[in-house]
Structure formats: C-alpha cells, structure tokens
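Late entry, evening session. Most of the bench is empty. Finally got around to the prediction I had been postponing all week. Sequence below, unchanged from the version circulated by S.P.
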Amino acid sequence: QVQLVESGGGLVQPGGSLRLSCSASGSMFSFRMGWYRQGPGKQRELVADCTTGGTTNYADSVKDRFTVSRDNAKNTVYLQMNSLKPEDTAVYYCNARVSTYNYWGQGTQVTVSS
C-alpha cells in the first residue's frame, strides 16, 4: 500500500506564495501525480497534475499562478502556488494514480486571508 505524505500548507495573505510537497512511500514510476483541492462547501477538484515524463495539466483557475513539478528519484511531487487568492482556500490533497490504482494523501489546509 502506497502512502502519500503532504507538507507545506498554512496561512498566507492574498498575493503570497506557498509550496506544497508530497512524498510517496514507494516508486511512483508510471504514476500520474498531482494535486486536488476541496474548498468549503465545494466538491473536490483537480488543481494540477504531472506525468512521469513531465507533461502537466492545470485547472483554468490556477494557470499562470501555480506550477506542478516532480522529482522522480525522490518519488515527490510539488505544487508552487503564487499570487494566492482567498478563493484558493481549501484542503489540498496529493494524488497518485495509474490504471486501477488511485492513492490519496491525508490533505493539508491552505488558507488565504488577510
């Protein structure tokens, strides 16, 4: 069973930046890894993800502000979040999936508020 452990959430002012990290307990080769979020009263949604080869995919709401990347040697995926807005406030979940395998982290809270 693969475990995903997130870190890096917290409270930040509007316009600020945060970097989330997610480390996997096993090899993530061939897994698509990325981030989802669930805001208050909202459904969980894709934020961004990345293939092993580095192909990325972003939600329209975060394009040009967020950057997803991964270190395959460390089985780690990152999310650099810049120009944060109050509407980015959510619990952010790390995800790794391939074929019928789909793993989730425990979530990390990101709060954007002045």
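Two things to note before I forget:
The mean pLDDT is 96.
The CA atoms of residues 16 and 100 lie 37 Å apart.
Will write this up properly tomorrow.
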